Amino acid sequence: MNKQNSSDIKKIPKNPFLFGLFATKPYKKFAVSAMIASFIATGVGRYTVVPFAKLTDAIAANPIDIQAIWFWAITYVVLVFINENFIWRSSGFAGMRWFTGAAYYMYQSLYEYLSLHSREY
């Protein structure tokens, strides 16, 4: 590592939580992306009950409104598809990059911290 990172290595926090934040710092864009995508996916998942309720109301209506049934059925399927296949997957991808990168950074930081000490340490 370069000298800037070596000076950072010497300042490794002793607290496990702070050490986790220390290791996350180089991967903060992935951490933030994973959290934002999780919040959005949870919100979209909670919202899918609305088109499902509208679909149920359209089916139960007298007379039956075929256009409303098709609209709400397609809306429900599209929302679920987008949520499961894009939003949650992007959250998983960003989280995977975050955790694997932070784990590697932890390992590398601790190894370099130990290797900077004398053999007697």
Summary keywords:
5 helices, mainly alpha, 121 residues, single chain
Describe the protein's architecture and organization.
By secondary structure, the protein is mainly α. Helices cover 81% and strands 0% of the residues. The chain is built from five helices and no strands. Helix 2 (16-24) crosses helix 5, helix 3 packs antiparallel against helix 5 (66-115) and helix 4 (49-60) runs antiparallel to helix 5 (66-115). The model has no long low-confidence stretch (mean pLDDT 89).
Quick rundown:
The protein is mainly alpha-helical. It is about 80% helix and about 0% strand.
Class by SSE composition: mainly alpha
Question: How is the main sheet built?
Answer: none
Number of strands: 0
Strand content range: under 5%
Q: In one word, what is the shape?
A: rod-shaped
List low-confidence stretches: none
- Secondary-structure element order, N to C: HHHHH
Task: State the separation between the terminal residues, measured CA to CA.
Answer: 21 Å
Count helical runs: 5
Helix content: over 70%
Please state the average pLDDT score: 89
Set down the secondary structure blueprint.
Layout: H1 3-9, H2 16-24, H3 28-47, H4 49-60, H5 66-115
Helix pairs in contact: 2-5, 3-5, 4-5
